[in-house]
Amino acid sequence: MMGDGKRTLVLLLSLIHHLMRALVCYSQPGNFVLLLQNAGIASMHTAVTHFNTVVFLDRTDIGSSLINLTNGVCRENPNDRVSPHDCTAHSVLFDIATNTVRPLFIQTDTWCSSGAFLPNGTLMQTGGDYDGFKKVRYFSPCPATGTCDWVESEKELLAGRWYASNQLLPDLRVITVGGRGVFSYEFVPDQGLGQFDLQFLRDTNDQWNDNLYPFLHLLPDNNMYIFANRDSILLNFYTNTVLRRYPRIPGEPRNYPCGGSSVMLALDNANGFSIAEVLVCGGSNMYAFSNPAGQFGASQTCGRMVVTAANATWEMLTMPMRRNMGDMVLLPDSKVLIINGAQNGSQGWMDATNPCYNPVIYDPDTNQFEVQAATTIARVYHSTANLLPDGRIIVAGSNTHEFYTFTGPFPTEMRVEAFSPAYLDPSNDWQRPSFVSYPSVIRYGDNFTVSVALPGNLAGDIELTLASIPYTTHSFSQGQRQLKLAVYPTQSTSQGSIFIVTSVAPSYILAPSAYYMLFILHNKIPSKAVWVYVSF
Ligand SMILES: *[C@@H]1O[C@H](CO)[C@@H](O)[C@H](O)[C@H]1NC(C)=O
Ligand SMILES: *[C@@H]1O[C@H](CO)[C@@H](O)[C@H](O)[C@H]1NC(C)=O
Ligand SMILES: *[C@@H]1O[C@H](CO)[C@@H](O)[C@H](O)[C@H]1NC(C)=O
Ligand SMILES: *[C@@H]1O[C@H](CO)[C@@H](O)[C@H](O)[C@H]1NC(C)=O
Ligand SMILES: *[C@@H]1O[C@H](CO)[C@@H](O)[C@H](O)[C@H]1NC(C)=O
């Protein structure tokens, strides 16, 4: 899409840029910034909405939080084991533009719950503990100045689900899988189908569990990849048939309470979206949870597997440091950020030590890990990390105590930070693209066009990535997926630096109908995302 002269110029500028970086700073890439000193709650579950707000959600039976409900509202709940009369909030809405929070009202206990965004942009949250065990709640987001709040549904789950995982499906239902002592899955809405027994969850439930918050990845063939403990299967959830069993991952258990994490690497139009690769990183020694005093070293390995390959086998990788409770975030450039967590112990109250202050970024193309600049804030049990539309990662929570505890080691963490990967360095602005126009709706099967401004009349490699918005808790981002879309280049318009890029919408299986962030990348440097609604 550009002449040789221009390409040489781009390469030269890029070379100078890298030389300057190497000379000027030997420091580690990326940086943390404190966004808010006191969010009022420690977020155990976090989700970004398409109104550029972020839902922070903790649990109700934790005593008073540090933020009051407004307008004299209080929660009267004789069944609450701590605060039957509670005038404080246990969920807040964070506004990305102003770094402020507004209290939200939840009625029942959301502790260790699951969630997914519905096609209409509403966050559906399912289950929890105690009086919230079977609850379904909706948060329909609104502009940051609005008053939207949680609504509890009359309709309950079929089974109480505490530590389950959710995924939005191509047919617009949500599947919710597992939970403590629950060896089944169900759909919301359930359409009278009942729940489906899943022997795999029983088989992977050892004496310390190690199978909670199963990792779910919806594959391009419309089957569900499910990983629990050290094993994984391919499930046809339409017929309740286990189609495949994958080899056991070497090393430690990876699910709660061992606190590994998992992503499906970006699906790529370059292979017709036919290849799906799963990356599972970190975990804890099998005996760490039952013997916290032992403070056993966490896992230092990741397993990577092409789950669509007939001969699927784990390729094992060594991370720069040990980690449990790491959050894995798919970045706009399709690399994987691994952030938060600890190097010893396991999940559970006060069960970990030796926090991982340095995130790492894994590059799936080179198989290399790069250690990132450190934070000063320990983010251990019950912490979260989520991609924002501007390319930063919002980092919240960390509470390794049963109640809010601000003394002693690892006090309950109310601070909110953002981590900015190196692609956000101002030194990259000379080639950062930005959207000039884009469709707000992308329809399956249709081509669509965006127009893009490139500074300085440059033109290098252009890529488009579509990123879902996950519900993040306990080191797993439920519903996280990313697609590298086709780019049909393009003619430059008379404006010179404005380029028209044509792409084709992915199928409803690859990208179930929902709001997505659409990023444009120029020489791997991402723009700010725009929100697009992907639909039939
Ligand atoms: C919350 O309300 C209580 C009781 O009215 C008051 O004592 C406290 O200062 C308030 N807290 C905040 C953070 O506003
Ligand atoms: C989205 O759908 C849910 C579930 O049917 C419903 O509760 C909610 O009100 C809807 N939200 C909007 C904005 O229409
Ligand atoms: C953490 O684990 C490492 C690796 O097993 C071990 O060498 C170290 O002693 C452990 N730290 C603590 C505090 O137990
Ligand atoms: C799996 O099969 C593919 C295609 O035949 C081959 O390229 C690849 O090396 C094999 N991988 C393993 C781990 O055997
Ligand atoms: C989309 O655009 C490509 C490239 O111009 C073209 O080959 C294809 O036929 C178009 N598809 C549709 C559905 O218009």
Automatic annotation (TrEMBL):
Protein's name according to its UniProt entry: Uncharacterized protein
Name the lineage. Answer: Eukaryota, Viridiplantae, Streptophyta, Embryophyta, Tracheophyta
Name the source organism: Diphasiastrum complanatum (Issler's clubmoss)
